Hints:
By secondary structure, the chain is an alpha+beta fold. Helix content is 26%, strand content 39%. It has one domain (22-158). Strands 1, 2, 3, 4, 8, 9 and 10 form a seven-stranded mixed β-sheet that branches. A three-stranded antiparallel β-sheet has the order 5-6-12, with no helix packed on it. The protein has a two-stranded antiparallel sheet with strand order 7-11. The longest helix has 15 residues, at 3-17. It starts with a helix and ends with a strand. The model is unreliable at 1-21 (pLDDT under 50).
Amino acid sequence: MEKSPLLIALMVLVLAAAPAMAMTSDTLDITVSPDGRADIEFTYHLNWIEYISVYLRLVDPAAELKKALESNFGKPVQVVSVDSNRVRFSVDTFATVGTKEGKKTIRTPGLSFAEGEKILKSYWFAPFVTADLSPSVTRIRFPDGTTREFYDALEIPPQVISW
Length: 163
């Protein structure tokens, strides 16, 4: 029991002396099905401060990303799998599917990573972390083979395709 307070004190000392670290959002891949369902994969890198937070269960990246996605989409999000640098989600009614002039149309919602950055800033370790949650590359894949890519974008506008 005497080791716990010592370990916590040591962590606080290390964190206080540590320079600001940055979380890296690598990719966001969204694959949209013909029925509007989406499979979403988000890859990221955590620095050592964030790894400690996750290890001590102070932060659950999958739960926070799920919360941010549900807030953004206004729809339920299911966590499919999680590992140390990747989270996979599924959203049943991600895109709106319709027909216009005899063509099938799919419209995705707009995306904003600003809410996730706001949530991250509420954690105790926020002063030590510089977060840019906008992925280096965001890809949206549609059922007809169309792919839209965005680079380092904090906001992604709604996308519409017809085929």
